[in-house]
Amino acid sequence: MAGRGRMVPCACLGLFGVLCWVWVSFASFPDDQLPLEALDAVDRAAFQPQSALSEMEFSSISSYRGPGNRDRRINKELPILLWWSGGLFPHFPGDSERIDCATSSCLVTSNRKVQMYKRTASIIFYGTDFRAYEAPLPRLRHQTWALFHEESPMNNYFLSHGPGIRLFNYTATFRRESDYPLTLQWLPSLDYLLQPVAVPLGEKNRLRREGLAPVLYMQSHCDVPSDRNRYVQELMKYIQVDSYGKCLNNKPLPENLEDTATATGEESSFMNFVARYKFHLALENGLCPDYMTEKLWRPLHQGCVPVYRGSSSVADWMPNDHSVIIIDHFPSPKSLAEFLKRLDENDDEYARYLEFKKPSRITNTRLLEALETREWGVNDMSKPNYLNGFECYVCDKENARLAAERTYRKAPNKNQPPKPKMANNSHMGCPLPGPGYGHVTDLPADDGWLQIWPQDYWQSLDQAEGLESLIRHNESDPSLLWKHIQNMAVSRARGKH
Ligand SMILES: *[C@@H]1O[C@H](CO)[C@@H](O)[C@H](O)[C@H]1NC(C)=O
Ligand SMILES: *[C@@H]1O[C@H](CO)[C@@H](O)[C@H](O)[C@H]1NC(C)=O
Ligand SMILES: *[C@@H]1O[C@H](CO)[C@@H](O)[C@H](O)[C@H]1NC(C)=O
């Protein structure tokens, strides 16, 4: 898939942080190696020929046992959570670990041999890597699926369709409606927003007189579903934009910066370079409610004004109601350009956008509360990262569900069975990509964007329906996906669907 390969470095950066955290927590606790546990007979019974867990090593980091956790079961009695995307398994060394969470404990592993075990209560997937034709089938009735997807909607539109997302029982996504929301994952802290303006307005005006453009564009990932280039290209007709990335490039990057231009990191010479601009074009690669990245938070941090398109509900998370310029509030690139030019010439009006640098002017209680109450940290060694946070969320939920099922089985007349729990479109539900500027019907048939993204979106729907069909038919071979998709197309053509 075009573009997906290029997401990997970002994922790796994030992972690096995670690994650092895990390493630190690992280093700071005694490595009390647990004895190897053999599987109990029940686990071995159903599908698998051999005991897999007996070969696994259990190194334990009892790092986040909550005060409410009175779970004293030994490892072989604990439910298992399987990380299907092994690359993301947030523990090392080894591929298995006991986790002690807020209210209960689980065994987590990335060893797929446990897929069919009765004791395997949940499978955790990484959204970017999830492929319908590789899904673990047959889907066992007693197992839940958990989805972790903090990355761009463009990485997997499968998850944006009802039939796709409903296959998951628990989610951690950028949407506030998800079970374990990661909405502010790119905002490290309130202090990050409150950092003083990096380049004072007087200096910015001086640079303007020397010919620096008012607006910065810095993007090297050009073929993306939000089709941002098409908008920026039109905008450039009406206002001066300095573009240093590979997309719509009109200026060379200074040599010392070349390596950092595409990095998401915050290397200081790069930061100083971009901070000189009054406005930063901040257009996400994919559009979805609550999908916001460093493109938005970094200019706020530096005291530049973001000119933003991405999450349609971005205003809900801004420090106050006058700190970001929202592209979709303007009828055309031309009217946006005129607005930016007026601000460029009016220091008082421009400065109003930076008033949030005074703590008293951060008035958005939703933002303040979300930062205050989230349990995970960003580059914060004193808090768990969200991968470990989410697996603990799943662990506690699964133990509660298993306990409720036991209670129900003991006395079905007196108790209710636990209610099924599944995700829905509000946990992801990103819209069909549209052109960045103009109407889709006006695009020539050979338009590059048109040939990729709308198709990718609808093919993902086919795959979601195909996988749902595989599961409904209790198939055990996920490569039958294509056959099921074809059958669905045929019955649709016959008017049966
Ligand atoms: C998990 O989701 C599946 C598919 O949507 C559903 O059939 C099942 O009942 C759910 N399981 C639980 C325990 O809620
Ligand atoms: C979708 O899920 C959320 C909880 O995650 C729930 O509040 C909402 O009612 C659900 N919507 C529909 C249409 O079922
Ligand atoms: C689904 O298939 C598995 C083996 O592939 C089988 O053991 C199980 O009984 C089947 N379940 C149903 C409900 O047919």
Automatic annotation (TrEMBL):
Membrane topology (UniProt): Single-pass type II membrane protein
Classification via PANTHER family: ALPHA- 1,3 -FUCOSYLTRANSFERASE, ALPHA-(1,3)-FUCOSYLTRANSFERASE 11
InterPro entries: Alpha-1_3-FUT_met, Glyco_tran_10_C, Glyco_tran_10_N, Glyco_trans_10, GT10-like_C_sf
Pfam families: Glyco_tran_10_N, Glyco_transf_10
Originating species: Dissostichus eleginoides (Patagonian toothfish)
Top-level EC class: transferase
Family in the record: Belongs to the glycosyltransferase 10 family.
Role description: Protein O-fucosyltransferase that specifically catalyzes O-fucosylation of serine or threonine residues in EMI domains of target proteins. Attaches fucose through an O-glycosidic linkage. O-fucosylation of EMI domain-containing proteins may be required for facilitating protein folding and secretion.
Known catalytic reactions: L-seryl-[protein] + GDP-beta-L-fucose = 3-O-(alpha-L-fucosyl)-L-seryl-[protein] + GDP + H(+); L-threonyl-[protein] + GDP-beta-L-fucose = 3-O-(alpha-L-fucosyl)-L-threonyl-[protein] + GDP + H(+)
Molecular function in Gene Ontology: alpha-(1->3)-fucosyltransferase activity; peptide-O-fucosyltransferase activity
Signal peptide as annotated in the record: 1-27
Domain Fucosyltransferase N-terminal: 78-181
Alphabetic keyword roster: Disulfide bond, Endoplasmic reticulum, Glycoprotein, Glycosyltransferase, Membrane, Signal, Signal-anchor, Transferase, Transmembrane, Transmembrane helix
Protein name per the record: GDP-fucose protein O-fucosyltransferase
Pathway(s): Protein modification; protein glycosylation
Domain Fucosyltransferase C-terminal: 215-369
GO cellular component terms attached to this protein's record: endoplasmic reticulum membrane; Golgi membrane
EC number: 2.4.1.-
Entry's localization field: Endoplasmic reticulum membrane
Keyword Lipid biosynthesis: no
Top-rank taxon: Eukaryota
